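[audit] Reproducing an earlier prediction to check determinism. Same input, same settings, fresh worker. If the tokens differ from the archived copy the diff job will pick it up downstream; this log only records the rerun itself.
[audit] input (253 residues):
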Amino acid sequence: MNEKELKYYNKRGNWNFSEIKCIIEKLTNWDYYEKIKENSNEKSLCLDLGTGGGEKVLKYYPKVGMIIGTDFAKEMIETARRNALKYPDKNVKFTVMDSLNMTFPAETFDLISARHTIINAKQIYKTLSKNGVLIIEGVDKKDCWAIKELFGKGQAYSDEIAISEKDYNDIKEAGFSKIEKVKILENEYYETEEDLMKLLIETPILDNFSEIRNDFEHSGKIEKELFDEYVRKFKTDKGILLKRVSYGIVAVK
């Protein structure tokens, strides 16, 4: 995630994708929360960066000693604290913090997880205990590439170096002893045009993609035409196909 995307997420208090109808077809045998489970135990002290509204941490994080979830957006953390009330048995605390300016003491955490968020590898390395583990899942440059190419814009579209490579290089430079990087492929099939439209409006996949208004402003009309062209090309029996490309990293201090 770059600084532009950081500002995008900072504007949002929370979002809910539960109403979007989508079938996910996993093509790569790599699971973020399984990796966390494999590298933690019931005594582990874990830090989750960019925790957002906490929904995924609360639902999917394995049983550990404690989870501290952080996010730079105060609104997100307020949402996470409200969501935590539904999980009274989960040992988790949420706090506002910038992932690029971490304030925890050195060698505090056994595991640090970061999903779809910006990181500071050197600060993470310092904050991890000896043999501590960093686990990352992020959106890569080629994610949703067909629709980005059609629109000529989008998340990481003009990046000179893919964020997966930047993260890998930063982690290596920070001093981690063992680093594993995996490309993660998934196919998403959206049931209707409205489901795909909602996703594009609510996420930064396409920069500044705006909902098509009834008055069909010039820019909105162009985007509607491009959107319709994409639907024609990628509509299948399973739904409207969106090819997702992300990356996973497991690094040991």
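[audit] rerun output stored. Observation attached for the diff report: Strands lie at 22-26, 45-49, 66-71, 92-96, 109-115, 128-139, 178-190, 240-252.
[audit] end
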